[in-house]
Amino acid sequence: MKQKVYIYRSFERFWHWMQALSIFFLAATGFEIHGSFTFFGYQNAVKYHNIAAYTFIVLIVFAIFWHFTTGEWRQYLPTTKHLKAQINFYLIGIFQNAPHPTKKTVLSKLNPLQKLTYLALKILVIPTMVISGLLYMFYRYPQKGMIEGLNIGTIEVIALFHTAAAFLLVAFIIVHLYLMTTGSTITSNLKAMITGYEELEDAHGNHESENLKNDKKEVEA
Ligand code: HEM
Q1: Is residue 189 part of a domain?
Q2: pLDDT, tens digit, for every residue of 73-109?
Q3: Is residue 207 in some structural domain?
Q4: Closest Cα partner for 196 from 19, 10, 21?
Q5: By the 8 A CB rule, do 192 and 198 touch?
Q6: Which of 9, 21, 33, 190 has a C-alpha 20 to 30 A away from that of 15?
Q7: Separation CA 71–CA 59 (nearest Å)
Q8: Residue 9 reports pLDDT greater than 80
């Protein structure tokens, strides 16, 4: 039986949408700096990119605090259980009207593929963006073309990492937008991230799979 459940708390929704806005704006201004198109003008693009970057960093600090104080970081513990089933679902099952291989519950909001992808974003892609971005800043501004303390005399490697991670983030957003529409209805995931509420079949995992049971044990431990 379906039940309306409060699944995304207010800070979580605020963080999600601020992050979406920041990344969208950073990608737009960043690719203008890169030379992909002209909209704000190069100098303004650099100025806006820097402001958005600082906003993004402040948001990340609050988000890290929130994840640890609420214990929500456990949602991202990776698992290989049902991972293949989840991949097969997106490749084949979804086109044959097959049911979702894992059920969403309050204690296990993410499917195994999401856990892995979001964890990689949090510990690899976003840190790469932030660290290379800050190095880019310090290379450009205070020391004008050099970071003496780190013996960095060329921007090439920094720019390569920053741009590669930017492409990865943009690719993620495109896939994320498609997958967003594959919930129980086209808009159910979007509505949940706006209102916090979602209709779930088994809200608290009463008939959960082994995968979900394990997650629950970990959270309770
Ligand atoms: C806290 C995070 C970030 C910081 C500190 C940062 C900082 C910077 C800086 C200082 C520049 C060079 C500006 C100049 O040439 O004077 C730059 C360029 C760029 N940024 Fe970011 N950025 C961040 C996040 C992002 C994100 C999230 C994206 C895209 C999704 C992005 C995409 C780009 C791109 C494509 C360039 C041009 C790189 C090139 O062509 O060499 N940045 N960023």
Answers
A1: yes
A2: 999 999 999 999 999 999 999 999 999 999 999 999 9
A3: yes
A4: 10
A5: yes
A6: 33
A7: 18
A8: yes
Instruction: Output the ligand 1 site: residues, CB below 6 A.
Output: 23, 26-27, 30-31, 33-34, 46, 49, 53, 56-57, 129-130, 133-134, 136-137, 140, 159, 162-163, 166, 169-170
User: From CA 205, how far away is CA 217, in angstroms rounded?
Assistant: 12
Residues 211 and 85 sit within 8 Å (Cβ to Cβ): no
Mutate to test the pocket of ligand 1, among 38, 136, 144 (most ligand atoms within 8 A of CB): 136
Is 21 domain-assigned?
yes
Averaged pLDDT of the chain: 91
CATH classification of the domain holding 75 = 1.20.950.20
Residue with the smallest CA separation from ligand 1 atom 29 is 27
Mean pLDDT across 66-71: 98
Residue 142 CA, ligand 1 centroid: distance in Å: 17
Q: What is the extent of the structural domain holding 205?
A: 3-213
Question: Quick check: is 93 in a domain?
Answer: yes
Q: Atom 4, ligand 1: which residue's CA is nearest?
A: 133
Looking at the structure of the chain, the number of domains it has is 1
